[in-house]
UniProtKB/TrEMBL annotation:
This is Response regulatory protein. Residues 14-131 form the Response regulatory domain. It comes from Streptomyces reticuli. One of its GO terms (biological process) is phosphorelay signal transduction system. Residues 149-214 form the HTH luxR-type domain. The gene is senR. GO terms for molecular function: DNA binding. SUPFAM superfamilies: C-terminal effector domain of the bipartite response regulators, CheY-like. InterPro entries: CheY-like_superfamily, NreC/VraR/RcsB-like_REC, Sig_transdc_resp-reg_C-effctor, Sig_transdc_resp-reg_receiver, Tscrpt_reg_LuxR_C, WalR-like.
Length: 217
């Protein structure tokens, strides 16, 4: 009886883990080592270390946290990784899921965006997808992305950004008008437009949303 041919073994995905928390890294490494089709080639505690290790190990995928303590953050690390050939795919794995964080990561070149609450099986599947250049998003993140695409929020004008920046410093309408050489009535008009665009109705709400979406430089 002719034996049934077996499918060829899948080449393991070479992965580099970047997270500034040593305990989290240890847990991820233990989890990844349990997967037969994943090979961990390195671990980094900072963006700078991830860049250096990526040059040495040439991973297929970098598993990237967004907040990395001191030094460059996960978004900037992602941008630099994607700019250096051979550019690895980057799969963000984080606890942060604000619109601004998701947008910044994807614009920097991240192939996927997962939350740390995901199941191990979903993480393994996302890693395989990322290695092939296919997007992988946690369901809550996918919902947010689709919502933004369906209901895009108007962008702030440069003048509105200036007023929002002064607003975040606690300046009154009168002080903002003096700083920008415009009338208080004009400031109020711009504030109403800012509130409408950000979906808020108070000064504190506008500042809070601006900080969440990283609209303040």
């Amino acid at each position: 009886m002719t034996p049934t041919p077996q499918p060829p073994a899948r080449t393991p995905v070479r992965i580099l883990v970047c997270d500034d928390h040593a305990v989290v890294r240890a847990g991820l490494l233990a989890l990844l080592h349990s997967a037969p089709d994943i090979e961990v080639v390195g671990e980094a505690g900072s963006g700078e270390e991830a860049l250096a290790l990526a040059r040495k190990t040439a991973p297929d995928v970098v598993l990237m946290d967004l907040q990395l303590g001191e030094g460059i953050d996960g978004v900037e690390t992602t941008r630099r990784l994607r700019a250096e050939p051979p550019a690895p795919h980057v799969l963000v794995l984080t606890t942060y899921d604000t619109d601004a964080d998701v947008t910044r990561a994807i614009e920097a070149g991240a192939t996927g965006y997962l939350l740390k609450a995901e199941r191990a099986e979903d993480l393994f599947t996302a890693i395989q997808a990322a290695a092939q250049g296919r997007p992988a998003l946690s369901p809550p993140v996918a919902d947010r992305v689709m919502s933004r695409l369906r209901n895009p929020r108007p962008a702030l004008t440069p003048r509105e950004q200036d007023i929002l920046a002064h607003l975040s410093r606690g300046l009154s309408n009168h002080a903002i008008a003096r700083a920008l050489y415009i009338s208080e009535a004009t400031v109020k008009t711009h504030l109403r437009r800012i509130y409408d665009k950000l979906g808020v109705d108070t000064r504190a709400g506008a500042v809070a949303v601006a900080k969440e979406q990283r609209l303040l430089s």
